[in-house]
Amino acid sequence: MNHLEREVLGILSEDCRLDAEKIAVMLGATAEEVQETVRCLEKRGVLVKYAAITNLDEEEDECVEALIEVKVTPQSGSGFDGIAEEIAQHAEVKNLYLMSGAYDFAVIVEAGSVKSVSRFISECISTFDCVLSTATHFILKKYKIEGALTKRDKSRRLSVQA
Asked: What is the separation of C-alpha 8 from the centre of its chain, rounded to a whole number of angstroms?
C-alpha cells in the first residue's frame, strides 16, 4: 500500500462523507488522483463499505446486541472459513471474527429482543454439527464505537452521598 492510499484511508476512516476535492486539498493531491486511489482501494477490497456510526442506546429500546463466542471443530477442506460463511449468511449477524483463545469465533448479533437472540442461538448457531459450545454476552452500554466516544448525559447520573 502506498503513501497516498494510507492517507486517503486515514481520512475516510475519520469522515467518509468527505468528497475527493476536499481530500485532495488536505493531501496536496488532485481530485482525480484521490478518485483513482479510492477506486483502486474499492476494487482490491480494502475499502469494503462506507457507513455511519450510530449510537442508538438512548433512542431505541427494541434493539438488543450480543457478543456470542462460538467454539467449533474446523471442517475438513474448508477449516473455519466454511462455517464462518454459513454463520455470516444470517441477517442478525453484524460482525464475525475468527479469534484466538478459548473460543474460535466472536459473533456480534443484533435482534429485537433477548428472546430473539436466544432463538437465534438455539435455532441457528447450535444446529451446526461442528459447534461445540457458545457463550453469550449482552451489550448493555456503549462507551466507544469504532474509535468514537459516545456522548454521556451526565445530568441523568444519580448522586451518591454517604
From this structure: 21
